Amino acid sequence: MKPLKDIAGQTVVYGLPSIIGRLLTYLLVPLYTRTFLPEDYGIVNLLYAYVSFFNILLTYGMETALFNFSRLQEDKQKVFSTIYTSVSVTSIIFLLFAYVFKNNIAQLIRVPEHPEYIMWIAGILCTDAVSSIGFAKLRERNKARRFAIVKSVNIIINIALNIFFLVLCPIIVQLNSPLAGFIKYIYNPDIGIGYVFISNLVASAIALAMLLPEMIKTGIHFDKELWKKMMPYAMPLLIAGFAGMINETLDRILLTWLLPEELGRQQTGIYGACYKISLILTMFVQAYKYAAEPYFFANAKGTDFKKNYAVITKYFIIICLLISLGTILNISWIQYFIGEKFRSGLKVVPILLLANLFLGVFYNLSIWYKLVNKTVYGTYLTVIGASITVGLNWFWIPSSGYFAGYMGSAWATLICYATCMILCFIWSRKHFPVKFDMVHILGYFALSLTLYFLSTYINFPSRMVELVINNILLVLFVAVVMAVERPFKMFNTKPV
């Protein structure tokens, strides 16, 4: 089936640099969780939670607007230039605002001793916002190679600088090597976790510099009338994205706010580290999103689009289930990616994996309201989800018992994403009906949950036996899927 091959190929092309890069970045988690205390790593997670919110605010739906209006307008350069100019201007205004009020902002978000963090974070936000439009242009024009190169350079520089500042510089200074004199000019151990932000800022600035030549070619042309048409389309996406980010990251902020300061930072650090274990699933979902959104917009008018969309959705869910099941069945060795002080939070991993699986399905289903220009439904869904997130976290985090602290945050995330996924599916039946293979999809969900619970009830005599049996269960899941779907036969079938 050609559409399935196309989306799989594009997911690999667009996702490979992100997947490899994130895997390399994932290797920083052992470094962070062994270099920093949970409360210090909690600050990193807290500030990046704010970054996630403001990333949405500073792009305000313009990436998706670029895809949509590029297919509707003959002059694609005018579309890109208008969006690029708009985002650049708002980013500059935001950077000036952050500079003027950095001390007040640092006080507000409970890092009053480090106003310099605010400027570094603001710099990351602004460069990433402008770069996101450049990356969206590359995706819209199918320039996958260029996209991959810039993404890879950004990731490699970020990782290299983290290792340089957090590993090499302390060793060189401690050993008093001949390079120590030079290193002392560029390295200050008191900065500590600040080097995480500095490394990110430098990498983001270099990525923007690499994208600038292509951006400059379009010139600075702002079409006011076109912009006025874009904003009603983009604003619901901004609200939906902002509410969606509440669902994704507000729990880390609320842990800091609703618990005593030291305990809040500690729980945020543990929760954030354990959240990273679901990274393989989130990487796949992100890679799929990079490829799927422009692909669906480009092929939406095809006669077999809905049929192909249903098949793609089923295989997307199968892969998500496989990744989730593989992660949790191998948690006995995957846990060593985080430091020992953080492993008390491992019990949230199965909950978060299922939550992120539901989020991935929601992302896949959400294409319907973008295609039929009913983006307001995205607002409805994410506002409902945000209400669930805020309400449950507010109630559970400061409580006592099982749902206290980050356990309440994990369950709130699962309930939120499950609700958004179900409502999105129900509403799509009315406005964009698609015949999904629900029998097989629900069957695979049931099979994966059965295998997981089976593994929890087996008393393993040793860690090695546990790994062998758990991976036999994983192979069993794959075997059932292969027997039912017969994917190789489908891929070898020539299109009619």
Provide an overview of this structure.
It is a single chain. The chain is mainly alpha-helical and 496 residues long. It has one domain. Helix content is 81%, strand content 0%. It contains 22 helices and no strands. Helix 11 crosses helix 12 and helix 14 runs parallel beside helix 20. The longest helix has 35 residues. The chain is globular, with a radius of gyration of 23 Å. The mean pLDDT is 85.
Tell me, rounded to a whole number, the average pLDDT: 85
Oligomer: single chain
- Low-confidence spans: pLDDT under 50, at least 5 residues? none
Major β-sheet profile: none
Domain module tally:
1
Radius of gyration, Cα only, in angstroms? 23 Å
Q: Tell me how many strands there are.
A: 0
Q: Sketch the topology as an H/E string, one letter per element.
A: HHHHHHHHHHHHHHHHHHHHHH
Helix content: over 70%
The proportion of strand residues reads under 5%
- Shape assignment: globular
Structural class: mainly alpha
Reconstruct the topology from this structure.
Elements: H1 2-26, H2 28-35, H3 38-59, H4 62-72, H5 76-100, H6 102-108, H7 115-140, H8 144-175, H9 180-186, H10 194-217, H11 224-258, H12 261-275, H13 279-299, H14 305-329, H15 331-334, H16 349-365, H17 367-371, H18 376-396, H19 406-431, H20 438-457, H21 463-485, H22 487-491
Q: What attributes characterize this protein structure?
A:
496 residues; 22 helices; single chain; mainly alpha; globular
Task: Give a quick summary of the entry.
The protein has 22 helices and no strands. By secondary structure, it is mainly alpha-helical. The chain has one domain (2-491).
